[in-house]
Amino acid sequence: MSAIVETAGLTREFTVRDGPRRRRLTAVDDLTVRIEPGEAVGYIGANGAGKSTTIKMLTGILVPTSGTVTTCGLRPVKDRRRLARRIGVVFGQRSQLWWDLPVRESFRILAAIHGLPAAVERARTEELVDRLEMADFLTTPVRQLSLGQRMRAEVAAALLHGPRLVILDEPTIGLDVLSKQRLREFLIAMRRTDGTTLLLTTHDMGDVERLCDRVLVIDHGRLAYDGDLVGLGRTTGAERVLVVHLAAPSPDLIGIGGARHLSSEAHGLRQSLAFDAETTTAARVFAAVAERAEVLDFTVEEPDIEDVVRRIYAARR
Amino acid sequence: MAEGLTFRVRLRPYRVVLAARASSQTSYRANFVLDLVSSLLSAAVELAEIWVLFHAVTRLGGLEFHQMLLVFGLADLAFSLADLAFGHCDNLPTYLRAGTLDVFYLRPQPLLLQLVTSDISLRRLARAAVGLVALGAGLAVNDVAWGVGDAALLVVALVSGWATFAAMFVLAGGLQFFLLDGEEMTNAFVYGGRYAATQPASVWSRPLQAVFGFFFPMAFTGFLPTLRLLDLPAPALLPTWLAWCGPLAALWAWAMALLCWHWGVRHYRGGGGG
Q: Does residue A85 belong to the interface with chain B, where contact is any CB pair within 8 Å?
């Protein structure tokens, strides 16, 4: 089967003005990647690592400085208009909806833009409205939507024409827990029913954990990691953090097996412990803590994606 | 038949967007009326300026007030209609700064066509009405010896004037890709050009005649057709027969505009492709 995305030596340089001098900056450096149909790929990296530049080259907005790229079997720059019918893109920060029009109207316009037959338009809109639970705000102008509602509408807008590849750029940024949860569930269901290929950039490790079976890490334009999430954790040894709220002020919880005391607040009422998910489990650490003090509440914090990326970068140098 | 159908289908995306834009502008009636009134006032003030000027002089560049009405009417009507259809190309710097131009790249239509049809400014109809009234008055009070040629010239002048002004908006858009905060500079020939077009070219200095006579071919939109219609003496650089060359001027303007647009897009995407 042919790849959905295939790049070879993909490189993009920019000339930046640095005072009176001009400087060449390599945003994407010799990127060679192949994404198969039906994969769900998380594309992560620090700000300015080259994620957006890559996406712009995959979608035909930017012309590569060198190297080749094919998306859905097309050359993105040359075949931009044909490619637009096969991909759906959500730029988290840049709306593709009409600000002053009701959501329904935006969908109608986009259906016309993609030349969907009336029957397809009706069926597809109905399906998306139902699955993304948008019936309550279909007649609301986009500018009056909450962020969570708008994001659902954006995703629906990108999916209306039934694209084979969906690219989501920071889809959950700024969303509350419930909205995030809903969106992720929808995307998981969409992949299951439609077999859509998913490429997403995110700063949220939760997105990657729940949605992606493959992770690409980019560092200064270069591919730093390509593999699954388990391998990523193993490579980086990123730690999870158990935060416990105790019933009474307690001394620092030092010497718990497999865990490392990070901090204590409010005279030891709230304490944080880091542990390596490879060597122990949250439950074991929690049990050890419970033996020493009465625990009222607790949370487990996932490793911060910035932290994971930082560890990869550090390991590479 | 089949061809006509595909053509209709091809046009549908643009039609749907424009219809939605138009209905959203008119849905708040009071607001829309205010927009119309303010647009009407600003156009009327410009016409009044000329009228006031003629209280001080009886002739300007060899033209009397009633003759000037015709220059103003032709140029301003053509400009307003171009502004109606192409004026929002002025929004390009905003799109560039916010990065929202990328959204156009994700749709299966040509970029420039999408930008042009992304909006329509109905309030400019009020401005066009002022131009139309001035043109009607100009034609009524002047002694035009109507022949087939004159009627044809009137139509040619309006259509090519519209196309020329439209090209100025596209040209300005193309330049925005290179200029940061370049609106000041492009306004000089878009809105400065409109102003020049409503003046008699005979009062301009020679360099100005070269710039707004030929490079930005503004004299072709109002002044030259008026000379021809009223059989008036022409300045040396701009002979009366040029009045018929409005379409050539429009072609030249569009050639510049499309070249500039193409360069701009190329610059934006960083090399090849359009």
A: yes
Residues A11 and A122 grouped into a single domain: yes
Task: State the number of CA atoms in the 13 A half-sphere of B143 facing the CB.
Answer: 3
pLDDT score for A11: 96
Q: What's the token pair of residue B96?
A: 């560039």
Look at residue A136 and give its three-state secondary structure: helix
Q: Are residues A179 and A253 in the same domain?
A: no
The span from the CA of A96 to the CA of A83, in Å, is 17
Q: State if pTM tops 0.90.
A: no
What does the alpha-carbon distance between residue B147 and residue B229 come to, in Å, rounded to a whole number?
10
Compare CB distances from B107 to A12, A108, A113 and report the shortest one's residue: A113
Question: Per the CB < 8 Å rule, is B17 touching A112?
Answer: yes
Chain A residues closer than 8 Å to B108 by CB: 81-82, 84-85, 113-115
User: Pick from A78, A87, A100: which is nearest to B24 by CB?
Assistant: A100
CB < 8 Å to A101, chain B? 20, 24
State the total domains in chain A: 2
Final residue belonging to a domain, choices A234, A263, A283: A234
Low-confidence ranges of chain B (pLDDT < 70): 1-5, 271-274
Tell me the domain boundaries of chain B.
Answer: 2-269
Single residue among A234, A261, A279 that ends a domain in this structure: A234
- Smallest CA–CA distance, residue B172 to chain A, in Å, is 21
Give Cβ neighbours of residue B56 (< 8 Å, ≥ 6 apart): none
Name every chain A residue with its beta carbon within 8 A of the beta carbon of B109.
Answer: 81, 113
Pick B105's closest partner by Cβ from A12, A14, A80.
A80
How many CB pairs lie under 8 A apart between chains A and B? Answer: 78
* Domain membership of residue A289 as a residue range: 238-316
A130 and A43 in a common domain:
yes
Q: Does one domain contain both A144 and A13?
A: yes
> What CATH number is associated with residue A302?
3.30.70
Of A56, A62, A94, the CB nearest to B100: A94
Q: Is A61 on the interface with B (CB under 8 A)?
A: yes
Task: Give pLDDT tens digits for A16-59.
Answer: 877 788 888 899 999 999 999 999 999 998 888 899 999 999 99
Q: Which residue of A has its CA nearest to B21?
A: A101
pLDDT value of position A209: 84
| Angle at A167 (CA atoms; ends A163, A173), nearest 5 degrees | 135
A133 token code pair: 């639970």
Q: Do B17 and A93 touch (CB under 8 A)?
A: no
Indicate whether this complex's ipTM tops 0.90. no
Tokens of B240: 């009366």
**Residues A59 and A85 grouped into a single domain:** yes
> Do A54 and A191 sit in the same domain of this protein?
yes
Shared-domain flag, residues A72 and A206:
yes
Q: How far apart are CA B242 and CA A191, in angstroms?
A: 65
Is the same domain home to A192 and A281?
no
